[in-house]
Specification:
Blueprint (H helix, E strand, L loop, with lengths): L11 H11 L41 H19 L4 H8 L6 H15 L2 E5 L5 E6 L3 E8 L4 E5 L15 E9 L5 E9 L12
Antiparallel strand pairs: 1-4, 2-3, 3-5, 5-6
Helix pairs in contact: 2-3, 3-4
């Protein structure tokens, strides 16, 4: 049975959901994936969560799979920095990790959150359960725990009610390798069906 993905709009309510939903880093919201087809919803990343190391089996540290996973994980630290930076600096920070329409969308989210005095709160934990790798594209399945992440008021640093995320958030990130050889996130979406960390591949 086909899973259903969520698409979120850029309202104040969805902003809070975004941070809570994603885990942390970029601009924080869940909406349709910018560089995907119309059926793929974008997910903005909350911005404060160093992801947990994925279970990648026996792959070597320099394997293509590890390169894709490392690029996905690095996005979160970058997003954490971008959300507290001026928009022009935020773009410079994020463009190493995000590409296409999704980058533009994330920058808009950064601006929206700053205008509403919102900042990332807590941390999300990334649990990579599967990596579908092709020559220049990849899909990362992340059973993310966002139960300890959300949005805070940047003036008081206090968690905003109802912005905390949930555990077992079923996310799929679309990755593309650019002409410079770097992998970047071009879309992120969340599915209704819960995921399970127990499904992580064993070594």
């Amino acid at each position: 049975m086909e899973q259903k993905a969520h698409e979120w709009t850029s309202t104040a309510t969805t902003h809070a959901k975004h941070l809570a939903y994603l885990a942390a880093m970029i601009a924080f919201s869940l909406t349709a994936v910018g560089c995907d087809s119309g059926s793929s919803p974008k997910v903005a990343l909350p911005s404060t969560a160093p992801p947990a190391a994925p279970s990648s089996g026996a792959a070597s540290p320099t394997s293509p799979t590890d390169s894709v996973v490392a690029a996905y994980q690095a996005l979160f630290a970058a997003a954490d920095k971008a959300i507290v930076s001026p928009p022009e600096q935020a773009r410079a920070i994020l463009q190493t990790y995000v590409a296409g329409d999704y980058l533009d969308w994330e920058i808009r989210q950064v601006m929206n959150h700053q205008a509403e005095h919102q900042e990332p709160w807590g941390k999300v934990v990334v649990h990579i359960t599967k990596v579908d790798l092709k020559a220049n594209t990849a899909k990362i399945h992340d059973c993310q725990d966002a139960s300890r992440a959300g949005l805070a008021d940047s003036r008081t640093h206090v968690l905003i009610p109802k912005t905390r995320g949930i555990a077992n958030r079923n996310l799929i990130a679309n990755m593309t390798r650019g002409s410079d050889g770097r992998w970047r996130v071009t879309g992120l979406r969340q599915y209704d069906s819960p995921c399970h960390v127990s499904s992580l591949p064993s070594g």
